[in-house]
Every structure is written in structure tokens, then in C-alpha cells.
Design brief:
The chain has helices at 10-23, 65-80, 86-93, 120-129, 158-162, 167-170, and strands at residues 31-38, 41-47, 53-55, 58-60, 97-105, 111-114, 133-137, 143-147. By secondary structure, it is an alpha+beta fold.
Length: 183
Amino acid sequence: MDHKQLHVGKKEHRLAALAAIESRKSDSSFKHGAIIYQGNKKICAGYNNTTRTCYRKNICCTIHAEMDTVTRFLNSFIKIHTTRNDNKIRRKMSKYSICVVRSSIDSNGKLCLMNSLPCRDCLRKLQMVGLNKVIYSDHNEEIRAARISDIQTNHLNWSNVMKLPDVMNKLRIVPLIRYNQKN
């Protein structure tokens, strides 16, 4: 890892288990779940949605679990608080953290965790919103924690994740579906 790791204890494992349960709600082949928490309390939960759009005749653009959770949280947060001041919201959001987990079921029916370090865009948005810490699962099924500001985003992309050992064996590869209007 290129970033400083924080201590991971029972609390982080409990939060990751809650995010894993949330991830199973996803109907996507890559099941990610996320929860926003403060201290030991789960505040808001979400998962990756397959709300897809059509762009250049390709079906694409899912909503990442982190963004689904943050959107749900901000929508309820803004309804409760009357402020629209971005700096004030960011200061209040710095009290909260996020936990992201990617799960799959192996051939024995066991729940396995896979790499769920948020992508470059999600990390930038999480930092912009003001969240300060992320808990995630890595490719060795271990739980990791780091400050969002400590994670270097210049090396995060899909191809680097795919090069990690044994990732390809754990994936269920789905071919790209072309949107075709021919009858």
C-alpha cells in the first residue's frame, strides 16, 4: 500500500460486516456495500446500483456504493439542517467516516471479501464532501483503514486492480453488453 494504514480493531470488523450485508442487496455482478458511521453508530447505508444509462450505444454507468451512500446521507442531512453553506456542511461531515466492502460468494457458499478501495473519482468526491476516514477490504480479504487525504489517487485505476494476484480468478467476468436497436 502507498498510504499510511490506521489501526483496525473489532469496531472496524463489525462495520465491515454491516457493509457486507448491505452489499448483498446489490443486483450488480460486482457487489459493493457502504455505510457512513460516526463512532460505533451506523448512520446511513447504500450499495452499488445498476441504474444504467446508454452512452454511445453502450450500456454503462453504475452508481458506486460510496456515492449512493453519500447521496442518501446528504439528502437526509440537508433536510434536517437548514444550511446550504458548503464549508459548514464539510466541517460537519468531517465527524463521519465511510466503510466500503466488496463481497462475493465462493463455490462453498462462504461470503468472501474482495478489493474495495474506492476508485479515484470516489475518493476525490469523498474528500470534497469532507469525510475523513475510509475502511475497506483488500484483495487478501483483510480489512484496512486509512485517512482519505493519505491515499494517493494517481495510481488507482481498473488495470492496476486487475493485476493484483488472484483477482482474475475471483471475478465473474461478464461480457460488455452492446445496446442494439435492430429487430
